[in-house]
Amino acid sequence: MTKDFHGWRKSHHSEPNGECVEVGLAADGTIGVRDTKLEGTGPTLEFTEDEWRTLLRKIRSAAH
Q: Ranges for the DUF397 domain (predicted)?
């Protein structure tokens, strides 16, 4: 079951052509990520805070 996420915001690295991801937060601290093109109707990836930090660290290290 998908959690109730709030405070959705677009990534600062989103493209102006609509290829964006949004990040939201659930009451228990779970981070949700979804594709903005699907206007909230598509799947949401769910991450714990530790999983989110690990994902961001790996993305940042691959970008350098």
A: 7-60
